[in-house]
Amino acid sequence: MNSDNRTFSRTISSRISARGRREDGQPNPIDIYIGQRIRQRREMLFLSQENFGRALGLAFQQVQKYEKGQNRVSASRLWDIAQLLMVDFSYFFQGMDDYAKNNSPRVLAGAPKTENLMVFKEDPLFRADVLSLVHAYLKIGSPVFAEHLREIAAAFADSFIMKKRAYDKGKKAALCKEKTAAAE
Q1: Start-to-end Cα distance in the chain
Q2: Can you give the pLDDT at residue 119?
Q3: Of 49, 52, 73, 126, which is least packed with CB atoms within 10 Å of its CB?
Q4: CB of 10 within 8 A of CB of 110?
């Protein structure tokens, strides 16, 4: 091992401690964020920590540690969690703030920052109003009423889209008229 590699290795070990924790012993912000996303989705599906842990073959205490970021979630375990929670793997990283992104083990180790490696749109499931709507919907006991509500929501959405298109079309027509009048 040459001296440059040894220097880099010492730099890495001085900035992060074992198992991806920060120097002060606190969990990495990314692990905390992923844990929050696991908890958010588990609660959205009305799963207890005990039942969720059982489905994963874990004690509920391990689920608690994952959700608090105290224990890191391996890639294979995160895959299992994504399957059980019926989300895409990327769900766990969507909406992550810059603080968490800038505290990855790679960045803490002194690797050069790379801007905009991953760009995610804001996750609408993160909004309180959407969560409230989903919780209310999931409480509907009748499949018939649930279907009616879906139809009503779809009709509202379609109506909104059609009105927006008509508005945009009218705006374009007015702009064309304005340009034609100015050209004459």
Answers
A1: 78
A2: 45
A3: 126
A4: no
- In the chain, % of residues over pLDDT 90: 38
Across 154-167, average pLDDT: 82
User: Which one has a higher pLDDT value, 39 or 177?
Assistant: 39
pLDDT band at 161, cuts 50/70/90? confident
Kindly state the tokens that stand for 13.
Answer: 């070990």
Assess if residue 119 is contained within a domain: yes
| Residue at 133 is within a domain | no
77-92: per-residue pLDDT in tens? 999 999 999 999 899 9
Provide the domain limits for residue 11.
Answer: 3-123
CATH number at residue 17: 1.10.260.40
pTM of the entire structure?
0.55
Cα–Cα distance for residue pair 36/66, rounded to 1 Å: 9
Mean of the per-residue pLDDT values for the chain?
81
Judgement on whether residues 85 and 150 belong to the same structural domain of the protein: no
**Number of structural domains in the chain:** 2
